């Protein structure tokens, strides 16, 4: 319709909301690490606590920064530096705090027992069954967050490729609704 004021012509598309720092930190964190679960073997393989502690102080910084730069296309110029610094601290803390708690609470002779899932056993020894259940629940949530971050990154990669004409344009289509999870079912 034209003229008269009753038509929908000229209606502008909704403006995209910029990505703020907290969701970007969470996305980068789960894209880079997903949490400390699965690092228990490093204590056994390293022959004790020193090498894993040094590794988890240095490697998250070396690994998180390049991964965060890959994800940079999602961040504005102001948000991205804050998110990178927040993420590096979160990754280092997420690895070191459980590792220090587990290593500090048990005798050094238990280094040979450290394997995948030992944080749960460690929680049982330190705090009882309730802590073991919480650690297992945290591991499950961590795995779900890691999966969600990976899928989010992949979908933006498809979007960018479609916008550049490398793949069919159907992959560039966005839905205005926030309830996209219902469409998957």
From TrEMBL:
Localization (cell): Cell membrane
Key word Cell membrane present: yes
Transmembrane segments: 21-39, 45-63, 84-106
Keyword Magnesium set for record: no
UniProt KW keywords: Cell membrane, Membrane, Transmembrane, Transmembrane helix, Transport
Domain of life assignment: Eukaryota
Single Gene Ontology MF annotation: transmembrane transporter activity
Membrane topology: Multi-pass membrane protein
GO cellular component, one term: plasma membrane
Main location: membrane
InterPro entries: RMV1-like
Protein name stated in the entry: Uncharacterized protein
Annotated organism of origin: Lolium multiflorum (Italian ryegrass)
Lineage of source species: Eukaryota, Viridiplantae, Streptophyta, Embryophyta, Tracheophyta
């Amino acid at each position: 319709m034209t003229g008269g004021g009753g038509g929908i012509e000229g209606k502008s598309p909704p403006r995209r909301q910029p990505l703020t720092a907290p969701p970007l930190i969470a996305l980068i964190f789960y894209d880079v690490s997903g949490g400390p679960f699965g690092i228990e073997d490093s204590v056994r393989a390293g022959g004790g606590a020193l090498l894993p502690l040094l590794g988890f102080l240095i490697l998250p910084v070396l690994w998180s920064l390049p991964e965060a730069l890959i994800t940079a296309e999602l961040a504005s110029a102001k948000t991205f530096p804050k998110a990178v610094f927040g993420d590096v601290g979160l990754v280092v803390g997420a690895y070191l705090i459980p590792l220090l708690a587990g290593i500090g609470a048990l005798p050094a002779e238990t280094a040979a027992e450290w394997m995948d899932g030992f944080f749960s056993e460690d929680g049982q020894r330190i705090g009882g069954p309730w802590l073991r259940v919480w650690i297992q629940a945290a591991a499950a949530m961590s795995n779900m967050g890691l999966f969600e971050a990976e899928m989010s990154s992949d979908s933006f990669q498809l979007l960018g490729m479609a916008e550049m004409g490398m793949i069919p344009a159907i992959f560039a289509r966005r839905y205005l609704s926030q309830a996209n999870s219902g469409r998957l079912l």
